[in-house]
Amino acid sequence: MSTTTSPAASVPTARTSVSATQPAARRTRGNKLAQWGFIAPAVAFMALFFGYPLVRNVVMSFQSYTPKTFFTGEAPFNGLDNWRTVFGDDLFGSALGHTLIFTVGSLAGQFGIGLALAVFFRRRFPLNGVLRSLILLPWLVPMVVSGVVWRRILDQDTGVLNSFLGLFGVGDATPWISSPSLALFSVIMVNIWIGIPFNMVILYGGLQEIPKELYEAAALDGASAWRTFRSITLPMLRPVITVVLVLGFMSTVKILDLILALTDGGPADSTQTLGTLTYQNSFVQLDFGAGAVVGNVLILISAVFAVFYLRANRSEGK
Amino acid sequence: MSPRYRHPSARKGTTIVTAPPSGAAGRSRRRSISRTTAVSLSVVGALVAGSVLAGCSQQRDPDVYTVLNSSTDESFHRWDAKTLATCSEQLGIQIEQQSVPAAQLKTKALRMASSKSLPDVLQLDASEVPQFAEAGGLTPLREAGVSDENVSRSTIDFGSYKGEWYGAARSVNTLALFYNKDILDQAGIEVPTTWDEMREAAKALTEGKRYGIALSAGGAEDGVFQFTPFMWSNGGDETDLGSKNVAEALDYWKSLLSDGSLSKSTVNWTQADVNDQFMAGNAAMMINGPWQLETLNTDKDLHYGIATIPVPKAGEDSVAPMGGAVLTVANTGESEREKTAAKIINCMTSEKEELTYAINSGMVPANENAAKAWRAKFPELSAIADQVETARSRTAKVGDRWPTISLALQSAFQQALTGKAGSEAALDAAQRRATSGE
């Protein structure tokens, strides 16, 4: 910041400012245009691929959108009919409940085990790198393949899991996915297995960012391992934790492929979630209006959490 | 969803969708706009131009006729290609086969309808015909010129909706009782013909890790397909799920479970899983369809027999569901093309082509003469042909409401089988759910 007030300096400044008024304004306008130009691709992309489908989905939920629509192009508005049908169906309430249990259970398991593994792999020991890459495997397997394989593993009579338990003489007839009271639990377990690598990798990356000096200082102060974890690792990791949890939430709440491959929503609708319900409405019954209603509920839930995420990010920035 | 005639293992789509090249971005730049501005704007231009071009890419080729089916399985795709090559030569036109996985066929066809690029011949599962016909997407076959000569009444009904014939079947299939001859002989047990006999036989054949019977009570169309012969043979009906007859059929399934003759995993099984269990020797009998024959015959040491599905009381008719795909003429609004599509269907359903297809796939030809020839060729499969004669379609009574009823029914029998609710309560709830939208 210059604070010169000598008249000798002020005169030429004044002169240049007068003579440069026109070009400077033009330059600012050019800059503005360039700025908008740079934002434009992102805006166009968002409008085309996010804005349009979103608006369509909301509009569709107020329309009678059936196979006929594809041929005639007409989808008459039917007010709140779709919403009434969906909310009046008992299945919607239980699917909502299952979705919440599934999401909370999956996130707790994935995050807890992922964090424990990340902390574990921070230490130096032989084969560390090999083991760490092996743990990534579930992440590389397509979700549908995992689902089909686990369906075999969890089979009550011929499944590997029950045969294994049989070796110890316990629980060799556990109806993992054939009992409505256990199926949701089993699906959550499989999803935790799938989600651990993602959580571990991101959290492990976050751990590398924490300065070693902090741990050295803590060691000098004689802090216990638990104290070090609570007072250094957790607070320093908070931004990463937020990212992991929010991204995990978004991908878990809309789960569809895993459940379709594993239980198809059964037995007796005990693993029916909002994702499978919208699939059933739209692609089995071809009632796209009702499917859009459930889709909108999912979008709403995700949006609420997106707001939390943005707020958390903003407070980190301060 | 309902792989009656399809191989669920097939996943690979064989349609090749070619995307048009995106338009080159205009690079003209006025001097007053800086270089960076121009670059950023041209990116937007490219995006917009690309998407506009992509939007109007679908055009029907006037010289090529297309057939859309779900023959993604290698052998089925090859068989169909052969048939189409014959027809192409016979009619002097070019025919292209497009195949998409069965579960995606319905939505793919709808998307094509909205972009006015429907195929000329659309193969649908017969249970999907009402939804398309109701939407006005299909041209009545007789109007287009498809011949119904030598096609049985029940096969016409099979592809009809509201009295109008929309779908011509090449072959039909159904369910039957498959049994392991070696196991039954060893135990000295006769092939059951009534519910009581089947229950006793299943109990006697259950031993160690082996169950007496396997069937699919899965929470999808597979499970409902398998429940219908029990429901219908007992006089039950999809128009009244709350009736005593339907509850009795469900109670019969429950009795197999409580005897321990049927695995509790039945609620997770698809029909393909049931076949795996049977082939692995984990079940002495199973309910399944002829589309499994190709797989069953790969095991030379497996000696199996086929019988009609047992009935509640001796002497009653065994009513099984009729399944299979039908060929439809898509309503493209171009009557000349539709007439040619009808000719393609006439060729594909001709006696010779049907017989070839049926021999390959193990399903029963729809043409009565071809069916006679088929029977003579495969005496061991006569039970399937018998079963087809009394079989009925799922949509004959309820039309396009079938998917809703099916969803309600599968939920009900799963609740009853897993002990979540009693048979009658579950079925009453299903009936309410099935009719709530009316």
From TrEMBL, chain A:
Residues 1-26 are annotated as: Disordered. Signal peptide: none annotated. The chain crosses the membrane at residues 36-55, 100-121, 133-153, 182-204, 240-263, 283-310. Residues 96-309 form the ABC transmembrane type-1 domain. InterPro entries: MetI-like, MetI-like_sf. CDD domains: TM_PBP2 (cd06261). Coiled coil: none annotated. Its main location: membrane. It holds the Pfam family BPD_transp_1. It is a multi-pass membrane protein. Residues 1-17 have a biased composition (Low complexity). Keywords: Cell membrane, Membrane, Transmembrane, Transmembrane helix, Transport. It is found in: Cell membrane. Gene3D superfamilies: MetI-like (1.10.3720.10). Belongs to the binding-protein-dependent transport system permease family. This is Sugar ABC transporter permease. It comes from Streptomyces polyasparticus. The lineage of its organism: Bacteria, Bacillati, Actinomycetota, Actinomycetes, Kitasatosporales.
From TrEMBL, chain B:
Gene3D superfamilies: Periplasmic binding protein-like II (3.40.190.10). It comes from the Bacteria. Coiled coil: none annotated. Residues 1-32 are annotated as: Disordered. It holds the Pfam family SBP_bac_8. Keywords: Signal, Transport. Residues 1-10 have a biased composition (Basic residues). InterPro entries: SBP (IPR006059). Belongs to the bacterial solute-binding protein 1 family. PANTHER family: MALTOSE-BINDING PERIPLASMIC PROTEIN, MALTOSE_MALTODEXTRIN-BINDING PERIPLASMIC PROTEIN. This is Sugar ABC transporter substrate-binding protein. It comes from Streptomyces polyasparticus.
